[in-house]
Amino acid sequence: MGNRHLLTTGMTRGAIALALLVGASLDAAAGDATAGAPLATKCEACHGLDGLSKIPEAPNLAGQNEQYLVKQLTAFKTGERQNEQMSVVAPTLTEKEILDLAAYYSGIEIKVGKIPGQ
Amino acid sequence: MGNRHLLTTGMTRGAIALALLVGASLDAAAGDATAGAPLATKCEACHGLDGLSKIPEAPNLAGQNEQYLVKQLTAFKTGERQNEQMSVVAPTLTEKEILDLAAYYSGIEIKVGKIPGQ
Fold this sequence. Notes:
The structure is a homodimer of 118-residue chains. With 118 residues, chain A is an all-alpha fold. Chain A contains six helices and one strand; from the N terminus they run H-H-H-H-H-H-E. Chain A has two domains: 1-30; 31-106, Cytochrome c-like domain (Cytochrome Bc1 Complex, Chain D, domain 2, Orthogonal Bundle). Chain A is 58% helix and 3% strand. The radius of gyration of chain A is 20 Å and the shape is globular. Chain A binds chain B through residues 33-34, 36-37, 49-53, 56-60, 62-65, 67-68, 71, 81, 103-104, 107-118, and chain B through 33-34, 36-37, 49-53, 56-60, 62-65, 67-68, 71, 81, 103-104, 107-118. Strand 1 (110-112) of chain A pairs antiparallel with strand 1 of chain B, so a sheet runs across the interface.
């Protein structure tokens, strides 16, 4: 029982250390929403500065998941995902600019109202 | 001048008729949010019934542009766009189910609150 307790404690400590490391790494990778705000003028015509789509083909970005935005912008930059507009814009962005834009758009507060059928 | 006026009027009538036809066709293609609601249980684990992402990899869908949702679901169904989860789920959906799901998620009301730097 003593050994099992030690093992469990060791695993818990390991898990906490890993969580701290992951947290630190996420912080290091996090973008700066304030730096992203002026960059968003590149996105404004289609996605708006408020993150609400201005053309039928473009998605809303307001309050979108930050990690998802980084992944998709990177996919457009590398060519993994293709789109007439985004395949032109994304390759002009640095990795830091992608993080900052993701922080800006994910930082726009959204509230959900009425849900169909509810 | 008389002929030119007739031609212009004819073109205007043609444009109106075309606009009416396009409108009718969009209506015919529009999904049914109420029919989409029970289908959304397929999406719930990642995207929520409220359209707010439940895992870091998944985007919010609440209030998303309907046309964008139809296009992306169709792209996942055909394989044009790839994703570990969506490439499994989307091919199980019929075209009508895609329209209904897009109507459901786009029909969720969202309001934008505070914007970073403003």
